[in-house]
Amino acid sequence: MEQYIIKGGHPLVGEVEIGGAKNAALAILSAAIMTDDTVLIDNLPDVNDINVMLDAIAGIGASVSRVDRHTVRISGKNISDMSIEYEYIKKIRASYYLLGALLGKYKRAEVALPGGCNIGSRPIDQHLKGFRALGAEVIIHGGKILAEVERLRGKHIYFDVVSVGATINVMMAAAMAEGLTILENVAKEPHVVDVANFLNSMGANIRGAGTDIIRIRGVQKLHGTEYSVIPDQIEAGTFMFAAAATKGDVTVLNVIPKHLEATVAKLVEMGCEVEEFDDAVRVVAKGRLNSTHVKTLPYPGFPTDMQPQIGVTLALSQGTSTIVESIFENRFKYLDELARMGASVKIEGNSATIEGVESFSGARVSAPDLRAGAALCIAGLATDGITIIDDIVYIQRGYERFEEKLRGIGGIIERVDSEKAIQKFCLRIG
Ligand SMILES: CC(=O)N[C@H]1[C@@H](OP(=O)(O)OP(=O)(O)OC[C@H]2O[C@@H](n3ccc(=O)[nH]c3=O)[C@H](O)[C@@H]2O)O[C@H](CO)[C@@H](O)[C@@H]1O
Ligand SMILES: C=C(OP(=O)(O)O)C(=O)O
C-alpha cells in the first residue's frame, strides 16, 4: 500500500496544467462503443478510473488502442458480449454508463451494480426509470442489472431528482431510440454538455444539454468522430483551493473559467484575489482567509466534489463557517481525519460547523475517498509538519500525477510504499 508523505507549511506558487475531466471522459468512453466506426478521443486523463473503463470495454470485444498517454482509438465494431464483468464494475461508478450505451446500440445490456466512492447510498432508480420509460424491461438479478428491449421508443421523462448519471445514461440510450425523447429536470453539469456534444459529433441529434430540458431525436446509426474531452473543473478547483489554503499564488492552465464560477465566487468571498484569463485562472491568497457558508448543489451550484477541498480551507480560515452537503450523505468523513490534525469541527446530519484554527499539526490520516483524499493533501501542504496520508489509491482514481503537479508548484510531497521510505523522508526533510 502506498502513502503520500508531505512536509507543508509554505505557499504553493506557480502554474499547473489541468487535464481532461475524468467524469466526462468516463461517459464519453462508454458512448464511443455506440458506433461500429473508429472514434479518436483526446485529452483523456491518465488515471486509474479511465484505465478500468478501457479494460471493461476491451473486455466485451471493443478494440482499444492507445495513441499516447491521453489519446485512445476505439472501435465498437467487434463487440460480442453485452455483459460487463463485476471485476471492472466494482472499481468504478461510471461503469453504469455501459448500460445506456449497450442498450442504445444493441438493445441489450447486462452490467453489475456499480461501485465508486463510498460517499452515500447512491441509488440508480432514476437511470432504471428512464430505461423503462423508453420501453426496456429492466430487472436486477444476482447483483446485475439486466436490460432488454426489442425497440427503444422515445418518451417524455421527468426525473424525480437531478442526477448527472441518470441524465447521461438515459440520454445515451435515447440517442438511438425511435422518435423524440424529452428529458426534464436534468443535470446541467459541464460533463453532461460534453457528452451531448460528443454524441452529436457522432451524428446524434441532442438539443438543450446544459439547460433543464434535453430533447433527443433518435437516430438509427452513429458514426466515427474525433473528440477532445473538456478540462477537469474539479482538478482545477482542487489546485485553486490548494493555493488558497497555503496562502499561495497558483495559476491553473487549460481550464474553462465559466465552469469554475461557483469555486471562484467562494474563493473571492473568502478574501482571495482571483484573476480570470481566456483559459486560465490565477488564485492569490495574501494572508489568512475569512469564513463563509457553503451548500453543495447541482451545477451551477457549488459542487459536492469540491466540498472537502473548501472544507479544509475553511478549517484554517478566520471565524465560523458552515457547510451543508445536500447531495451525498456520507461526505464528511474527511472532517474526522482533519480533527486529528487539530481542526475544530462539529457534524450534525448533513451540516458541518467549522471553527477556523490558525494552523494544523501534522498527523497520520487516511483518505476516505477520492476528493476527501485530495483535500487531506491540501491540509498536509498547509501544515508546518509532516503529514502521512494512507489509502491514496482513492486519489489515484481521479488525479493524474498528483504529487508531481504539486511538486511543480513547490509542494514537498512524495509517494512512498514502506515505513522505511517514510523514515527516510523524515530524516531528509524533517
Ligand atoms: C462518475 C461521475 O460522474 N460521478 C459524479 C456523479 O455521480 P452520480 O452520477 O452517481 O451522482 P448523481 O448526480 O446521480 O447523484 C445526485 C443525487 O441524486 C441521487 N440519485 C441519483 C441517481 C438515482 O437514480 N437516484 C438518486 O436518488 C443521489 O443519491 C444523489 O443524492 O455526479 C455526482 C454529483 O455531481 C458527483 O459527485 C460524482 O463525482
Ligand atoms: C465521487 C466521484 O467519483 P465516482 O462518482 O466515480 O465515485 C468523484 O469524481 O468525486
TrEMBL record:
GO terms for cellular component: cytoplasm. Gene3D superfamilies: Enolpyruvate transferase domain (3.65.10.10). Residues 7-406 form the Enolpyruvate transferase domain. Pathway: Cell wall biogenesis; peptidoglycan biosynthesis. GO terms for biological process: cell division; cell wall organization; peptidoglycan biosynthetic process; regulation of cell shape; UDP-N-acetylgalactosamine biosynthetic process. The modification 2-(S-cysteinyl)pyruvic acid O-phosphothioketal is found at C117. Its EC number is 2.5.1.7. Phosphoenolpyruvate binds at K22, N23. It is found in: Cytoplasm. It catalyses: phosphoenolpyruvate + UDP-N-acetyl-alpha-D-glucosamine = UDP-N-acetyl-3-O-(1-carboxyvinyl)-alpha-D-glucosamine + phosphate. Its main location: cytoplasm. Keywords: Cell cycle, Cell division, Cell shape, Cell wall biogenesis/degradation, Cytoplasm, Peptidoglycan synthesis, Pyruvate, Transferase. One of its GO terms (molecular function) is UDP-N-acetylglucosamine 1-carboxyvinyltransferase activity. It comes from the Bacteria. Cell wall formation. Adds enolpyruvyl to UDP-N-acetylglucosamine. PANTHER family: UDP-N-ACETYLGLUCOSAMINE 1-CARBOXYVINYLTRANSFERASE, UDP-N-ACETYLGLUCOSAMINE 1-CARBOXYVINYLTRANSFERASE 2. Belongs to the EPSP synthase family. MurA subfamily. This is UDP-N-acetylglucosamine 1-carboxyvinyltransferase.
